[in-house]
Amino acid sequence: MLSLAGLEPCFEGVVPSILCTLAPDGTPNISYLSHVRRHGDAQVSVSNQFLSKTAANLRENPRAALLVVDPGDGAQYRLDLLHRGSLEAGPAFDRMDADLRATSAQLGMAGVMRLRAIDIFDVLHLHQVEGERTAAAPAPPSGQGLARALAVSEALMRANGLGGMVEAVLDALTDAFGHEATLLLLHEPARGCLVALGSRGYGVSGIGAEVPLGEGLIGLAGQDRRLLRVSDASRLRRYGDAILASSEQEARTRSVALPRLPDALSQLAVPLEAQGRVQGVLFLESTRRMAFDAEDGRALSLVAPQLALAIALAEAEVGEGAATGPQDRASSAAGRPVQVVHHAGDDSVFIGHEYLVKGVAGRLLMWMLDAYQAAGRRDFTNREIRADGGLRLPELKDNLETRLLLLQRRLEEKRAPVRLLRPARGRIRLEVEGRLVVASDQGGR
Amino acid sequence: MRPARGCRIDADLAAFIESPVMIILGTGIGSVPEIGRGMGASVEVDGALQIVVSAWQWPGTVAQARANGRIAATFARPADYVTYQVKGPVDRVAPLTPALEACAARYAARITDVLAGLGLPPELTAPWRSGRDLVALHVRPERVFVQTPGPLAGNLLAGSGG
Question: Looking at the record's lineage, which domain of life comes first (chain B) (predicted)?
Answer without folding.
Answer: Bacteria
